[in-house]
Amino acid sequence: MSVNKEEILEVLKGVIDPEIGINIVDLGLVYDVRIVDKEIVIIMTLTTPGCPMHSSISEWVEKVISHLEPEATVHVNLVWEPRWTPELMSSEAKRELGY
């Protein structure tokens, strides 16, 4: 595969959390991107464990990465530890939300 972690993070900025209106990367929801052979694993969380959009967001993540790297198998691993906090957001997201 020719795709790298930075390219994946850039394409993930196209996935917007519908409740907050900011992309999942700037929100700090993406904890890690692992590329092994033809598999891409996204380790991420959501703002709350009971987020009703969890399956939709996971599907969007898989879809945008599949468009970037069609040959890859994409897995989204939702984790709840460490717990998401607003401190994980980028400076830009904090400004936009008034933090």
Identify the CATH architecture: 2-Layer Sandwich
What level of helicity do the residues show?
Answer: 25-40%
CATH class category? Alpha Beta
Overall 3D form? globular
pLDDT under 50 segments (min length 5)? Answer: none
How many domains? The number is 1
Structural class by secondary-structure content:
alpha+beta
Secondary structure: number of strands: 5
CATH homologous superfamily identity: Fe-S cluster assembly (FSCA)
Q: State the CATH topology.
A: GMP Synthetase, Chain A, domain 3
Distance between the termini: 39 Å
- The overall average pLDDT, rounded, is 95
State the major sheet. 3 strands, mixed
The percent range for strand residues is 15-25%
Largest sheet strand order? 3-4-5
Number of helices: 3
Note down, in words, how this protein is organized.
With 99 residues, this protein is of the alpha+beta class. It has one domain (5-83): Fe-S cluster assembly (FSCA) (GMP Synthetase, Chain A, domain 3). 30% of the residues lie in helices and 23% in strands. The protein is built from 3 helices and 5 strands; from the N terminus they run H-E-E-E-E-H-E-H. The strands form 2 sheets. It has a 3-stranded mixed sheet, covered by helices on one side. A two-stranded antiparallel ribbon has the order 1-2. The chain is globular, with a radius of gyration of 13 Å. The protein starts with a helix and ends with a helix.
